[in-house]
Amino acid sequence: MMKRHGRIAAALLLVLCFLVSGCTASRLEPASGVDARAVLEAFKSRDLVGHLEALQKIADDNDGNRASGTPGYEESGRYVEEQLRAAGYTPVRQTFSFRAEGKNRKKVESFNILAETGGTAARTVVVGGHLDSVRKGPGINDNASGVAAILETAKWLKESGITPANRVVFAFWGGEEDGLYGSQHYVDELSKAEKNRTAANLNVDMLASPNGVRSIHDGDGSDFGDAGPSGSKAIEQLFFRFFEENSLAAEATVFDGGSDYEPFLQAGIPVGGLFSGDVEKKTKAQVQSFGGTSGKVLDPCYHKACDTIGNTNTDLLKEMSAALAYATASYALAPGN
Description:
By secondary structure, the protein is an alpha/beta fold. It has helices at about 5-20, 35-45, 50-60, 70-85, 140-160, 175-180, 180-190, 190-195, 230-245, 260-265, 285-290, 315-330, and strands at about 90-100, 105-115, 120-130, 165-175, 200-205, 215, 250-255, 270-275.
């Protein structure tokens, strides 16, 4: 997760989008027939940790990081592509470049990885999270955890025999830690018609914080005042329904502009997602709901070299990944209007 920009800027950009381009996106009501408890049970035995171990080894072999434009990022990309191909997908790279921070403003070449299901493109659901780490560390919670969740969701969808009525695009973004460059490039490359056909963006960024919480982005703005575009409320409600049906506590979190949902939000596309926490300290009330340690930050290794596989809560990762799979299937099967 990149450093936060602040909610006011994101809200102003969203308003500008509607005033200038009148941007609207396709609307979907998620299907109600997906069994939340069965999905959670399935994900308890899926090899999410195997992906964390693979990405940790890649970082260890490449100067301790997987940052965009580095050999570690290239190797991470190859790993993701291999996993997708083995599951029956045809991954493609979407290349882009950006200027790095610092005096020299070096040009960095990077890429997103995209893989599609069948289903109508008229109602496309983008399920994404960033693949890159910061340069200071391997980025296992931030965001190998999200990568693992997306990979296992893609694999589970195939293995479950689900035939999507609506196209799902599984997206692994580059350049997030440098400024959301990969997801912004993806949205910029969409035509107005393609934006209108994008029914939802489900974003996952940090799903295994060691002292973490189960938090869901506040789609309707009822908790923090900054709602997502129309349709975002349904995403928030869907995630809450998953946790409620599994008797797991969850709470809302703000859209703060700090992750890859932001370019979609600005384009008027319904957005939502999951987040387990970074630098905030856990409150006593959160301890009652989620366990853990009061007064300790949710992820003490956020953007640090210690963000290793030892910095993860694997039980939380399984729960959050199952929630992503449940939401993905619910939107993949959603009836059209």
